[in-house]
## 1
Amino acid sequence: MPQPYRPSPLSRTHARQAARRAADGLADVLHPLLVLGRGAPRLLARCRDWWRRTPGERRGPTLFAVAACGVLLWLLPYGPALATLCLLAATAWYGRDGASASAAAGAKAGERERARLQALYEALVPCLAPAGDPSPEPLYVPGGTWEQAFEEYAFRDGRISELLLRYPAWFPDGHLTERLRVEQLLAAKTGRGREYRFCWDQESNLLEMTALEPLPTDIPAQPFATAPGETVLGFTDGYEVRGTVPVRLLDPHASPRHLPPVLWRTGHRPAEPHLLAVGLPGAGTSTLLRSLALQALRDGDVLFVDGEGGGEFAGFAARRGVLGVETTLPGALDALEWAARETERRLTAAGRARQRGEDPPAGARRPLWVLVDRPAALSHLARVHGATDPQELLRTPLRHGRAAGVTVVVAEQFGSDEELADPVLACTRARVVLGAVSPQEAGTVLGAAPQTGPPRDAPRGRGFARLGCGPVLRLQVPVTPDPLDGTAPEAARTAVRELLPESVRAPAPSASAAEGQVPVTEGQVPVTGAPQAT
Ligand SMILES: Nc1ncnc2c1ncn2[C@@H]1O[C@H](COP(=O)(O)OP(=O)(O)OP(=O)(O)O)[C@@H](O)[C@H]1O
């Protein structure tokens, strides 16, 4: 049966490019007409404004002077032609690109929009117009109008969606608190419940505000199309990252979308080999760990240490590639001691192989992920019982994990993050913050404050990510619930179940596939069954 014709994305792109080229060509040909068409309403608007500003007693003489000039031009040889030429020149001048943007915008703005812009301007006056402003012509003055400060704007659904405003040169735009004051005011006055991106152009004293579309919250766990060594932390805005991955949505009837992922590179040469995620309670850090574990299990082994002991990772127990799910202090200590020894063993094995001019053995190459949820709780217990601090045991995997193919991910809650040990803070250069935290709080974890702040009703799994010294990206973690959590949507739990490796009780698929894996069930200490542990 012949298949229905489905245009490929490439041909659509070509069609779009062809249409764009045709439109560009047409715009070039019609450019003079477009300039005149743009200039005429601007000129009219200026004349109307000027007429409105002219006091009543001067309107009569002005009209008389204009009429006299008109008659004179009419009588002069070539007068009408000269007048028409002057009018065309003036129209073209006002129609040029960037000419009198605010005046043009003002002409387009309706009464309600003008009122909104004026209200916003007046709200900004106390922030941007202090007593004793030294500028001869202040941009922000009580009783001033928005046209003098707002260069560009756009409305969407009756609310301001974009704004480019000029701020005074004296404004301390290098101070985070001063910036945040203006940003919070703008966000509050332009409509709550939305997220905004603020770009401060310090060279030109311009602030650009853009209302952002919400990030999609219906992306289930799935095998993402990534290169080896790449892990999807979540999804972000299209303008921040290059490239997209095809994504299936929770709704089985919805067509797949191409979304921009936040990709974290792990393996032997990454700049950010370990990750620290800090979140508000219930914001989704355990979910992030589950999402990472499902991706890591495609070609590696995973060891869970759950400091809270809430059974968040019980669904992973007794699965192939899962070396352990430790929920108690003794179990966690044994597991982390093993992870430290395993890191050393891999380093030694890889070093010896290199001396012989060979590749490291497969057992030293297979990625190992150590996922630690709430280590501060374990450290507290260890202090009480006089045991070794589990975070200290992470020192070796954190310091040498990169060369040994060991990746450490630590998740902690705000409030307990001060109890994170130095090695954890020093070696985790990939950072994630989850929950509706203030930009300052996010900045303490990420090392730079985000240009946006999450709305008060931030969905679960929403936050920010920063890889090394890169930009702060908005992040939405895929829906990856505990498959045993009855409150989570069934479709999302099924997606997780489908990705979980087989149970260790199922017959091994083949000897080579099981190489380097020794399954350990929940509560078992990985050290006893650790592969090639020395
Ligand atoms: N990205 C997400 N999309 C949808 N639901 C989520 C997401 N992240 C978390 N949730 C839901 O929010 C609830 C809390 O998630 P999770 O247990 O991961 O949070 P947490 O930060 O570990 O909190 P706590 O440490 O207090 O348990 C769960 O019901 C989970 O299914």
## 2
Amino acid sequence: MTDRLPHEKGFHVSWDQLHRDARALAWRLQDTSPRDGWRAVVAITRGGMAPAMIVARELDIRAVDTISVKSYNHQAQSEPRIIKSPDIDLVGDGEGVLIVDDLVDTGKTLEVVRALLPKAHVATVYAKPMGREMVNTFVTEVSQDTWIFFPWDMALQYVEPYRGT
Ligand SMILES: O=P(O)(O)OC[C@H]1O[C@H](OP(=O)(O)OP(=O)(O)O)[C@H](O)[C@@H]1O
Ligand code: HPA
Ligand SMILES: [Mg+2]
């Protein structure tokens, strides 16, 4: 939680908005898709799972796998590492494979994923400037000082009116 405190702005994404943005991502991916379509989708857990499901549905991709990356903070002087790999027989070196995540921020997560699947196409719904170069296709860019709040981390709640009685 503390790592979002330095962020000046908040970008709150509803399920409806995420659904529309993930569909927009799928729409964009049609232009760069291989002639016979993508062989498989690899979702970066956990945030990439909902967008990957929506993209896979829109592009009729049935083979869906996951990759789990554990990030450590800099105090521990450790880099992110893969704690669960996708099926190597399915994904190979990433040729014809689509990697999906909810967002790229610093690009550290995608750095390790790209090292494993160098030929894959990388797609995220949202992107911040620091990590943008790590992504082949994305939908919406937000500034580096914006924290994106996803629907699975939020709940509807009462808010006080601007003007009290
Ligand atoms: O570009 P980066 O600076 O590496 O940050 C982006 C990653 O951070 C978040 O995942 P997180 O590691 O918090 O795990 P989660 O998806 O399980 O929430 C987000 O879902 C991306 O995967
Ligand atoms: O802006 C963000 N929102 C949610 N998770 C994240 N992980 C890195 N950056 C973000
Ligand atoms: Mg993630």
